[in-house]
Amino acid sequence: MQTETLKALTPWQERAAETKKPVVLYGMGSGADKILRQLEISGIKCSAVFASDDFARGTVFHGYKVSTLSQLEEQYGDMLILLAFGTSLPDVMQRIDNISERHELIAPEVSVIGDGAFEKHIFFERIAEAEHAYSLLGDDISRKTFELLTSYKITGDLAFLRKAFSLSAEGSKLTAVPDNAVYCDLGAYNGDTVTDFVSICKGHYKKIYAIEPEKKNFQKLIRNTSQLKNIEYINAAAWNSDGELLFSSGSGRQASVSSSGKRVRSVSLDSVLSGAGADFIKYDVEGADREALDGSKETIRKYSPIICTAAYHRPYDYFDLINHIDSIKRGLRYYLRQDRYYPAWETTITAYP
Questions:
Q1: Per residue in 182-203, pLDDT tens?
Q2: Which of 81, 140, 210, 231 is the most exposed place for a label (fewest CB within 10 A)?
Q3: How many whole angstroms separate alpha carbon 130 and alpha carbon 236?
């Protein structure tokens, strides 16, 4: 590979380009699709794909006969492994840690929604934006988490991510909620975060608005929270305006606004509330974060609610979304936390007035 091409690569790509070991993928699915594209763009050869024993049997992925790890160890000996799926399951994460003790393992940061990946040169082109977001962070844990996430995203080294997990455990969840609060859950999924909120406030809330576009998730949401009082269910996608959107109904949490799929209703939170107040707004809208925030502008500016948003669907969300919220409402305090997840999913930003 030419020297100029190497200079344009992110360090994990440089390592994969320079190694004499076979480069192999661990996992299949959309994450593996994206990593294979990154390898192809970089001119890096993928030698094989492996999965756990149950998934490997007779499977072919992008023309690769999917092997087990033991089969590849017998064939190659040492390898450079690229982690190509996400998990928060403790036993699976432990398995990944065990593999990383035997082989060099990298977890590339690719976009959860859409294509693309974290790229070092783009990060440094946008360093002023990253530094502005960093300056708004409200505690040392947030600042250290920001630094560790940046190091992880550049290198793909899970050691940085594990340190971020530990920091978040020390800092606990930021869950100060006023009594008698109005809670808005944008991307309510199956009701898990609604029930978390009710538990945190010990049932002392005024009203809950639960917005979820995917029909099966919406049915589970109603079923799982039907015992709650003063809850309004809205089967729609949180957006910057009322109307219709194309929506891809992926499995579980993977449903998202798309260029193809079924038409679904869209709503802005400002429209839903019609001038009424909100005390706490949670966003986990699978990549439509900016649009959903824009649809909440009037509520945020008038009522200064606590804001909690997912910040991992795109590689630069961990500073982009801080800056976006800051453009809507100045003077908020921001806290960055990273839950246990390989790769860096379940990153959250909480903003307090």
A1: 999 999 999 999 999 999 898 9
A2: 140
A3: 32
| Type of residue found at 338 | Q
Q: What is the pTM of this model?
A: 0.92
CB atoms near residue 13 (< 10 Å)? 25
3-state DSSP assignment of residue 69: helix
Task: With CA atoms as reference, report the closest residue to 183 among 30, 339, 306.
Answer: 306
Q: For residues 216 and 221, what is the distance between their CA atoms, to the nearest angstrom?
A: 9
User: Does position 218 have pLDDT exceeding 80, yes or no?
Assistant: yes
Domains within the chain, CATH numbers bracketed: 3-108 (3.40.50.20), 171-352 (3.40.50.150)
Q: What span, in angstroms and rounded, lies between the C-alpha atoms of 353 and 346?
A: 23
Q: From 348, 344, 340, select the one nearest 117 (Cα to Cα).
A: 344
Q: What SS3 class is residue 85?
A: coil
The distance from CA 214 to its chain's CA centroid, rounded to whole angstroms, is 18
Alpha-carbon dihedral of residues 288, 290, 291, 292, nearest 10 degrees?
Answer: 80
